Amino acid sequence: MTEIASNLAAVRSSIAEATELSGRPAGAVRFVLVTKTVDVERVREAIRAGAADLGENKVQEGRCKAEALADPAVRWSMIGHLQSNKVKDVLRFAREVQSLDRLSLAAALEKRLQHLGRPLDVLVQVNTSGEPSKFGLSPESVPGFLRELSSFDALRPKGFMTLATFTPDEAEVRRCFRVLRGIRDRALNDAPQGAALGELSMGMSGDYRWAVEEGATIVRVGQAVFGARPLPDSHYWPGVAGTR
Ligand SMILES: *Cc1c(COP(=O)(O)O)cnc(C)c1O
């Protein structure tokens, strides 16, 4: 078994264990493998080891990899900040956008999707940490945003996404995950999209087990499978000196 294959298996079994510990059925948590900065050959190795649900945070990089791999069995998600002028390119490869964080982006996506004649699954990104460096809606602005989103036919909101505070403090990280879960629980009752909004995308290499215990239905993990990324993007992997 290659190192990537064995890391993948280890993350899968760790997710399964945390899912069971949190009293949920097997398969309740979707694992998006984050391939940012990872070259196509190594991504191919992960696909050979069974990965089919991949995430990228940059449009150009995602598009290049999707085209190089040309594998219809792979589902790509956009998980990073998205500029409205990249909408056309992101829709060439992504089947889902997890980083919907403003109305102008929703409008740009909707316009392009109407042209293409297809829908798109989206998650609303929320800034649960309050850090000014993070993208995402403030928790208070989510209900109003969901009401406005309900007028866009092609966008299919499925739930919420967040990045926790960058800190080794478990209580603070879990606090962020609980904020997102509270937003989701309220939206299930109050939002126009109601029961469709079940997804909670939270948890990365350094904190996905906590996220699963707090109710994550999607985790986004890269470094735990591919190894540490070069700085400055490696903060969240606990195996790296000076990181969580
Ligand atoms: C990079 C990234 C991840 C994965 O982080 P790892 O530390 O590689 O697990 C998850 N979500 C987003 C939005 C990212 O940019």
Q: Can you walk me through this structure?
A:
With about 240 residues, the protein is an alpha/beta fold. The protein has a single domain, classed as TIM Barrel (Alpha-Beta Barrel). About 40% of the residues lie in helices and about 15% in strands. The protein is built from 9 helices and 8 strands. The protein has an 8-stranded parallel sheet. Helix 3 links the parallel strand 2 and strand 3. Mean pLDDT is about 95; it is low at about 235-244. The structure holds pyridoxal-5'-phosphate. Pyridoxal-5'-phosphate (PLP) binds near residues 34, 80, 204 and 236.
Sequence of strands across the biggest β-sheet:
7-6-5-4-3-2-1-8
- Total number of helices: 9
CATH architecture: Alpha-Beta Barrel
What does the largest sheet look like? Answer: 8 strands, parallel
Shape: globular
- The CATH topology is given as TIM Barrel
Number of strands: 8
CATH superfamily: Alanine racemase
Q: What structural category characterises the helix and strand content?
A: alpha/beta
Q: Rounded to an integer, what's the Rg over CA atoms?
A: 17 Å
Bound molecules: pyridoxal-5'-phosphate
Strand content: 15-25%
Helical content (DSSP H or I, runs of 4+): 40-55%
The stretches of 5 or more residues where confidence is low (pLDDT under 50) are 236-244
Distance between the termini: 28 Å
Count of folded domains = 1
Task: Give the SSE string.
Answer: HEHEHEHEHEHEHEHEH
Instruction: Indicate the mean pLDDT.
Output: 94
